[in-house]
Write a structure and sequence with these properties.
- The chain is α+β, with helices and mostly antiparallel strands and about 575 residues long.
- It has 18 helices and 21 strands.
- The strands form five sheets. A seven-stranded antiparallel beta sheet has the order 18-15-17-16-20-21-19, sandwiched between helices. Strands 8-9-13-11-12 form a five-stranded antiparallel beta sheet.
- β20 and β21 form a beta hairpin.
- α1 packs across α2, α4 runs antiparallel to α6 and α12 packs antiparallel against α17.
- It is globular.
- The N and C termini lie far apart (about 85 Å).
Length: about 575
């Protein structure tokens, strides 16, 4: 590699008159080692024992190269940032022999912070402009709009923002970026809470929001093909007159491409599954501009590798999704919502498990801890405040009111059997309930701590261990608070599929420690998940050993019967 973590310098060749090489300390050392090995072979061949000192050779080579640079006064020094591949490392010499490039775009795109070479060469910008026109922006304000989300990650703005309108444009843009070694980050609705779409390598940001067209609807097959930039809100508005809807509902404003990249779930996952179960086929563009199509509209295929599932959840690292064919569902004809409160988390999760085992068609099952319910009371100011205890919001859907009423009666009995309280919502209250649930992040705001920084993390565990996960995580939070660190926490999750989100408000903690706190909580959750897996494995082994003992007893009984017959 011609780049090293210690920086690099350009050398203007004293005889060639152009940039002949770019050497860093790492390359000097490599050159010295090669020269040492070659010298040893030569000495061995001619029967001498001369052993040159490699560091002396490297130092001498460095001095010679540096003197060449100083004598010609054309050696710009800089530092290569990790994670960013710099393009245009060898600018061509102007025809008039001047030391500065002709292209005035270089000056506009050159970073003034560290005086480093621009990662976006003028030739690449010109090629991108020819494809996108005004939809390519290098304006600082446009670029700075994509440098933060609700995650604690911080990054510098991208060097340019491109807004393509078609798969062909995405392919051409990526082909140019691949040629010039420019990092590319795709962003959809920008609703991520954990930094998935932040341009940590700067480079070019690909804004997919203008790719928001519905391509084709197949009502008989109950599927639809759309561009990746359309949001699921816009998609459901389009589908409503046809009696269909796309069931996944993550954060408001999320785009289909982002939902595919993160393999989202949402409140309806307990009934309809995650994004993996609701995508039939994809069109994606690879890093070199190659367009691939994975899967087909048919519900079943065994022809080759399942590349569709590989792309789902890859977060843009394997390719950029531009089109998708999605599975649709019928709008439910009847829906019931209920608020169920419980003395503790264990009884709440036990109720959900019992409902699933009883075959109840749960549309939603959302868990909130007491802090979250307190936040809802403060944020929405309902006429009747919620009890600030562990709570589950249920949604029951069906084809008729009689069906949902019957299911509601079963859930009510299960709630009462687990020591909870069941409160059925009116139709108006049902809509308000789910709107409030969508605003959970805003409900965590602490007006008494306006400068608090929210950290968002989540984990998915088996439902049977969800109560342990929540209770032990809250115990960790209490231990941190007891140590004198002023933090707040809120727990909310899709209890139907074992997903729990934790909102941590850092009130008086150094920003350098924020990632460490989140990492420690994530490691705790990972340990809990590993412990669950170990217990499951241990149980499986015990069952296998018990079956083996039973088989041995059966063989012994068979031998006993054989001896009895012989007698």
């Amino acid at each position: 590699s011609t780049q090293s973590t210690w920086g690099f310098l350009w050398i203007r060749g004293p005889f060639t008159g152009h940039h002949s090489a770019m050497f860093g300390p790492g390359l000097w050392l490599g050159f010295a080692r090669c020269l040492r090995d070659w010298t040893r072979k030569a000495c061995s061949r001619f029967g001498t024992r001369v052993r040159p000192a490699p560091h002396s050779i490297g130092l001498a080579a460095g001095i010679v190269g540096s003197l060449c640079c100083v004598l010609h006064r054309r050696a710009p020094f800089g530092f290569a940032s990790r994670g960013t591949v710099h393009a245009n490392c060898f600018p061509a010499k102007p025809a008039d022999g001047s030391s500065e490039p002709h292209n005035s775009g270089d000056a506009a795109l050159r970073s003034t912070a560290n005086d480093e070479p621009s990662p976006l060469p003028a030739s690449a910008v010109a090629e991108l402009k020819s494809i996108l026109g005004d939809r390519l922006s290098v304006d600082h304000d446009d670029c700075s709009a994509h440098t933060s989300d609700f995650a604690y990650h911080e990054c510098l703005p991208p060097y340019a923002v491109a807004s393509p309108c078609s798969t062909d444009e995405v392919s051409r843009v990526l082909r140019i970026c691949n040629t010039h070694r420019i990092p590319v980050t795709a962003v959809g609705g920008g609703t991520s809470l954990e930094g998935q779409s932040l341009p940590v390598c700067r480079g070019l940001l690909l804004n997919m929001s203008q790719m928001a067209q519905v391509i084709e609807l197949h009502s008989d097959d109950m599927d639809i093909t759309v561009q990746a930039g359309i949001s699921y809100y816009e998609l459901n508005e389009f589908l409503e007159p046809f009696g269909f809807f796309f069931p996944l509902d993550p954060g408001p404003g999320a785009s289909i491409g982002g939902m595919i990249g993160t393999r989202c779930s949402g409140t309806n996952a307990v009934r309809y599954g995650t994004m993996r179960e609701n995508v039939l086929s994809l069109t994606a563009v690879l890093a070199d501009g190659t367009v691939i199509r994975t899967g087909q509209r048919a519900r079943k295929s065994s022809a080759g590798y399942d590349l569709r599932s590989l792309m789902i959840g890859s977060e843009g690292t394997l390719g950029i999704v531009t089109e998708a064919t999605l599975r649709l569902s019928r709008l439910p004809k009847s829906s019931v919502a209920a608020v169920c409160t419980f003395p503790n988390t264990s009884q709440a999760t036990r109720t959900v498990i019992s409902a699933l085992q009883a075959g109840i068609l749960l549309g939603k099952a959302e868990f909130m801890d007491s802090s979250m319910m307190k936040g809802f009371n403060r944020y929405t100011r309902p006429p009747t405040p919620f009890d600030e205890v562990p709570t589950v919001f249920f949604a029951l859907t069906g084809s008729s009111a009689a069906q949902t009423d019957e299911q509601a009666a079963v859930v009510r009995d299960l709630v009462l059997a687990n020591g909870g309280r069941f409160t059925r919502c009116s139709d108006q209250g049902r809509d308000a309930l789910w709107l409030m649930r969508k605003d959970a992040l805003w409900a965590t705001h602490m007006p008494e701590k306006p400068d608090a920084k929210v950290l968002v993390t989540d984990v998915c565990v088996p439902i049977s261990r969800l109560a342990d996960c929540v209770e032990e995580t809250l115990a960790d939070i209490a231990a941190v608070q007891a140590s004198g660190i002023d933090i707040g926490s809120f727990v909310v999750g899709h209890v139907g599929d074992g997903t729990v989100s934790l909102y941590i408000y850092i009130l008086s903690l150094s920003p350098l420690l924020c990632p460490s706190l989140s990492l420690s909580l994530s490691l705790h959750q990972l340990t809990l998940h590993a412990d669950t897996h170990e217990r499951h494995t241990h149980t499986q082994r015990e069952r296998e050993r018990e079956r083996e003992r039973e088989r041995e007893r059966e063989r012994e009984r068979e031998r006993e019967r054989e001896r009895e017959r012989e007698r």
